[in-house]
Amino acid sequence: VLYLFCAALTEHKILFLSSSYQRLTDACRALLALMFPLKYSFTYVPILPAQLLEVLSTPTPFIIGVHSIFQSETQELLDVVIADLDGGTVNVPEYVHISLLPEPLLQQTREALSMVLDPELEVADLAFPPSTISASSLKMQDKEIRAVFLRLFAQLLQGYRWCLHIIRIHPEPVIRFHKVR
């Protein structure tokens, strides 16, 4: 999930494959939901019809879902991150470099997601584990996952004001983003 999240943030092409149309739609929508408060502004097609498979060769980034019976047509795509939802794998081609999160944030996010998704795993090696560890309800788990990613965005974007540069030549000041800082 973190690979797909980082691929979407860095504007890569993402293709979901599944034999279930519901799973395709859910996966595409979930990836967009994890990007909140950012908004994905590229091509987004949760279920691509068979007649439009040539869209996968577009040079622009996308998030597209395709039924797995068309998997053979997707084999020649060299710059597309393919997530097989039925097999549970993510294939990143060797020509594609996905920039992951900075290291302290990546490890913190993994640990936080692990605590939400499998709380028993976190305390399995403790000599004296807590007596009550229970998994959250699905609704609460959804909120906890959203909170993990919202906290990640807050940590990533903190201090952005240091990169703003005010130009006071004009009658009204102009704010620019200073890339060097």
TrEMBL record:
Pfam families with a match to the protein in the record: DENN (PF02141)
Domain UDENN stretches: 1-181
rRNA-binding among keywords: no
Phosphoprotein keyword on record: no
InterPro entries xref list: cDENN_dom (IPR001194), DENN_C (IPR043153), DENN_Domain_GEFs (IPR051696), Tripartite_DENN (IPR037516)
Gene Ontology biological process terms in this record: regulation of Rab protein signal transduction
MF GO annotations: guanyl-nucleotide exchange factor activity
Transmembrane segments: none
Single GO cellular component term: cytoplasmic vesicle
UniProt keyword annotations, A-Z: Guanine-nucleotide releasing factor
PROSITE patterns per record: DENN (PS50211)
Name assigned to this protein: MTMR5 protein
Lineage: Eukaryota, Metazoa, Chordata, Craniata, Vertebrata
Gene that encodes the chain: Sbf1_5
